[in-house]
Amino acid sequence: MIDAKGYAAQTSETPLAPWSFERRELGPHDVQFDITYCGVCHSDLHQIRDEWGGGIFPMVPGHEIVGKVVAVGEHVTKFKVGDLAGTGCMVDSCRQCDSCQQGLEQYCTNGNTLTYNSLEQDGRTPTYGGYSNTIVVNEDFVLHLSDQLDLAATAPLLCAGITTYSPLKHWKVGKGHKLAVLGLGGLGHMGVKFGVALGAEVTVLSTSPRKEADARKLGAHHFIVTSDAAQMEAAGATFDFILDTVSAEHDYNQYLALLKVDGVHICVGAPPTPSALLAFSLIPGRKSIAGSTIGGIKETQEMLDFCAEHNITSDIELIDIKDIETSYERMLKGDVRYRFVIDMATL
Ligand code: NAP
Ligand code: ZN
Ligand code: ZN
Predict the structure, then answer these.
(1) pLDDT at position 266
(2) Which ranges in the chain are annotated with CATH 3.40.50.720?
(3) Ligand 1, CB within 6 Å, residue ranges
(4) What band does 263 get if pLDDT is binned at 50, 70 and 90?
(5) CATH 3.90.180.10 spans which residues of the chain?
(6) Nearest CA to ligand 1 atom 22
(7) Ligand 1: which of 212, 247, 268, 275 to mutate, most ligand atoms within 8 Å of CB?
(8) Nearest alpha carbon to residue 257 among 193, 180, 155, 345
(9) Cα(159) to centroid(ligand 2), Å
(10) Which of 145, 254, 308, 337 is the most buried (most CB within 10 A)?
(11) What is the pLDDT of residue 16?
C-alpha cells in the first residue's frame, strides 16, 4: 500500500484535521499523481457535515484535484511520469450500462464511484479525496491538463467547470439565448464565463449587490439583485434558461417566473432541503425544471480543452490547508471570490 496523508473529518460534527491513510498499490491501469492543488467545492461542505445523508467517515473531501504524475501501471498508455494530471468527482463507474457506454459515467445506472464519500466498484472499499498529498486513479478517469493555464486556477474546472459547462452544452445554450446564472459563487462564476464564451447574453441573479462589478468583469451583460422586486418584475418572462447554482433553500417559483415560454430552469445547486413547487409556475409557459450533474469523462476533457483554447480558468483565492474551516465559514457567507483552492504544499 502507498502511505498517504491528508485532512479528514472523523465524523459529521468534527472539524477537518490531519489524518494518515493508505492508497492502493498501482494496478496495471492506474496512475499515481502527487496533488499540487485541490479546489474547495460547496459539495465538500455539504458532505463533511452529512447534509445529504449516507456519509462515509472518516471522510477526506476534495474533487477538484490537479498535480503531477509520479508513477504509472504497466499497461497505462495515456500518461507518463511528469505529466500534469487532474481528477474530478468520479474515479470509476460500471463501464457497461447504457449511460457508461454513451460516455455519461456521471449517470451510471449501476452506481459510479465518486472520488470520496463513495465505494470502489468492489462495493466495499471507501474512496478518499483530494485534500491529500497523493492519489491513485484508473487512467480512464484521469484528465489531461494544459500547461498553458495556471495550474491552481485549473483545479476548479474539474467540478465547478464541468458542472456548468455540461448543461450549457446539453441544452445548446449559445448565440441568441438569454441565460440567467443564479448565484455567483464557485459554480456561478464559471457558468458566467462559459455562457459568455458560448455567445449567450448573460445575466447574473444574485443576493449580493457587492458582486456586481465582479459579475461584469467576468463578462456578464446584466446584473440583478434578487431582493429588488422592481428589477425582478422587469426581468419577468425574459430568459431562455436559468442555471441555478444556489446551495441553500430558495423559492424555485420566484425564478420560474423569469423564464420565457418553453424556458428551462436547470438545477445544479443541490440544497439539502426540499422545496415546494407550484404546478402553475410551469403550466402557463410550458416551462421545465431540470437537473444536471457534473459531466462524463470525455466531456470533461472537451471542457478542459475548450478552456485551454479560450484561456478560461477559475478566479481563485489560494489557501493554506490549515485555514480550511475558516474558508468554509466564509463560503457559507458568500464571501469567496470565487473559489478557494488549497495549496497542497501547506499540508
Ligand atoms: P458557493 O461557491 O458557495 O456558491 C453558492 C452561491 O449561491 C453563493 O455564492 C450565493 O451567491 C448563492 N446563495 C447562497 N445561499 C443562498 C440563498 N440562501 N439564497 C440564494 N442564493 C444563495 O457554492 P458552489 O461550490 O458554487 O456550489 C453550489 C451548489 O452546487 C452546492 O449546493 C453544491 O453542492 C452544488 N454542486 C452541484 C454539482 C452537480 O454536479 N450538480 C457539482 C458541484 C456543486 P450570491 O451571493 O450571488 O447570491
Ligand atoms: Zn464539486
Ligand atoms: Zn455504468
Answers:
(1) 98
(2) 161-291
(3) 41-43, 46, 159-160, 163, 183-188, 206-208, 211, 245-248, 250, 268-270, 293-294, 331, 334, 336
(4) very high
(5) 2-159+295-346
(6) 246
(7) 247
(8) 180
(9) 5
(10) 145
(11) 98
Cell of 181: 446564472
How do residues 8-67 score in pLDDT, each as one tens digit? 999 999 999 999 999 999 999 999 999 999 999 999 999 999 999 999 999 999 999 999
Could you tell me the distance, in angstroms and rounded to a whole number, from the CA of residue 270 to the centre of ligand 1? 8
Within its chain, how far is the Cα of 334 from the centroid?
A: 16
Which residue's alpha carbon is nearest to atom 39 within ligand 1?
293
Average pLDDT over residues 229-245: 98
φ/ψ of residue 115, rounded to 5: -65, -30
Identify the three-state secondary structure at position 168.
helix
Nearest-angstrom CA–CA distance, 125 and 78: 25
pLDDT band at residue 124 using 50, 70 and 90 as cut-offs = very high
pLDDT digits (tens, 9 = 90+) for 274-290: 999 999 999 999 999 99
**Residue 155 to residues 57, 225, 228, 291, 316, Cα–Cα distance (Å):** 24, 29, 34, 23, 10
Query: Helix, strand or coil for residue 191?
Result: helix
Tell me the pLDDT tens digit for each residue of 187-223: 999 999 999 999 999 999 999 999 999 999 999 999 9
CB contact at 8 A, 39 and 164? no
Unique residue bearing C-alpha cell 455539504: 46
Domain 161-291: CATH superfamily is NAD(P)-binding Rossmann-like Domain (3.40.50.720)
Compute, in angstroms, the gap from residue 331 CA to the centroid of ligand 1: 9
Backbone angles phi, psi at 59, to 5 degrees: -120, 120
SS3 assignment, position 124: coil
Average pLDDT, the chain: 98
Q: What SS3 string covers 68-107?
A: EEEEECCCCCCCCCCCEEEECCEEECCCCCHHHHCCCHHH
- The CATH T-level fold of domain 2-159+295-346 is Quinone Oxidoreductase; Chain A, domain 1 (3.90.180)
